[in-house]
Each structure stands twice: as C-alpha cells, then as structure tokens.
C-alpha cells in the first residue's frame, strides 16, 4: 500500500515522553492523524502509538482500558509503517536530511472493504457501527452511521478538543478521514450501502425469529451486547476524549 508520512517534533513539558506526532496519508485519499512518537525512558528507545480512545472497560487491576482507533492488521505492515515513521522522525532531527521525510505522493485511491453492524437502541441516533479495511493491512474502527434529521450519514472517529464553538459546545476533531471529495463519496456510499444490506438482512432474520419464537427479548439483548463487545458502545463512548497515547 502506497502512503506518505509527515512528522512534527514536539517540545514537550518536562517529564513528558512525547517526542512528536505523525500523519499518514494513504495515496492522496485518506489521512490518519495523532500518531504519537513516544520515548521509553527505561530503555532509551522510541516507539509508535496509534490514536487511542478511553473505553468504559477496565482490566483485572481496575485500570482503564485504552483501545486503538485504527491500527495495522498484519505484523509485516506494522513493522514497515512504524519503522518508516521512526525513520522520518530521525530525519527531522538532521536538518540536512529533513526534505526526505515524505515519501512520494501518489494519486491512487487505496483499495478498501467495509463491514457494518446495525445498532439499535431506544433513544439513540446511532444506527450502525462500521469498520474500514485498507488492503487487508490497516483497520479503522469506531465509525458510526448516524440518523440525521432527514437521512443517515457517516461519522468518522473523533476526539474532543479544548476549544468550544459560539454556543459554548465542545469542538470535535476527526482522527482519521477522507481527504478528497471523490474518495469521501466513494467510501461513504460504500458504508451506507453495506449498512442498508446489513439492516435488511437483520430485519429479515428478526422476522424469521419472531415467527418461530414469537419474540425473544433475551436473545435480542445478547445480540446487542455482542455488537457492543466487538465495536464498543458508541452512546457511552462518543463523548469520551480520544488520546493517541496512554
């Protein structure tokens, strides 16, 4: 998969292990932001941390569990991407080599596939949960299909900034998103199309189950819990502040 990388060094506060942030663009079509470059001070090594969000889950020690918004799927692509990001960071530390930090941009749209799970909860305007797979190498999670006033639309993963709008409401910034109009239309149309197919399939299955069992609320609850387990609960997590590092 062809992509470009841009890295910015950060002058962090004393005691912080943040050294920089990277942005990756697949082709010229899809951008991933808030990729952190961190320092393991015990080992004196740098490592890459993908954008994360604070989930409602806790581990055995009752510590909050953070989950990746997006991440490489395969070990091979993870090693390639993370190595290139760290190499780009190393180059900006050497001014004479800084101009080489970007890979050659390409006009090609990356190949992708999407999966969608319908999500129904009373009082929620979130109607579906989607994932994007880029060339079976990189996954983007936490994509919501939202019911608007007139039609449904796609909402990309975002985090709450410290800024507010004119009404005093928090301003959210997308973590990853389509860059070009053509790719945005192609991607969003595919997501909505898959949502409609999944919704029709789910409704058909529900009708069949209703005819056979005359309704089974326990089964419906388990199905919803299963979707939340794999995608998270968007109603609980949509107001959580995303963070690119622990």
Q: What are the SSEs and their pairings?
A:
Blueprint: E1 3-9, E2 18-26, E3 30-40, E4 45-49, E5 52-58, E6 64-68, E7 70-72, H1 75-92, E8 112-118, E9 126-134, E10 138-147, E11 152-155, E12 158-164, E13 170-174, E14 176-178, H2 181-213, H3 217-231, H4 234-237, E15 242-243
Antiparallel strand pairs: 1-2, 2-3, 3-4, 3-14, 5-6, 5-15, 7-10, 8-9, 9-10, 10-11, 12-13
Architecture overview:
This protein is α+β, with helices and mostly antiparallel strands and 246 residues long. Helices cover 28% and strands 38% of the residues. The chain has four helices and 15 strands. The protein has helices at 75-92, 181-213, 217-231, 234-237; strands spanning 3-9, 18-26, 30-40, 45-49, 52-58, 64-68, 70-72, 112-118, 126-134, 138-147, 152-155, 158-164, 170-174, 176-178, 242-243. Strands 1, 2, 3, 4 and 14 form a five-stranded antiparallel beta sheet that branches. Strands 7, 8, 9, 10 and 11 form a five-stranded antiparallel beta sheet that branches. Residues 98-102 have low confidence and may be disordered.
Main attributes of the structure:
246 residues, alpha+beta, 4 helices
What is the percent of helical residues? 25-40%
- How many helices? The count is 4
Main sheet makeup: 5 strands, antiparallel
Write the element-wise H/E pattern from the N-terminal end onward: EEEEEEEHEEEEEEEHHHE
Shape: globular
Radius of gyration: 20 Å
Tell me the fraction of residues in β-strands, as a range: 35-45%
Report the mean per-residue pLDDT as an integer.
85
Q: Oligomeric form of this entry?
A: single chain
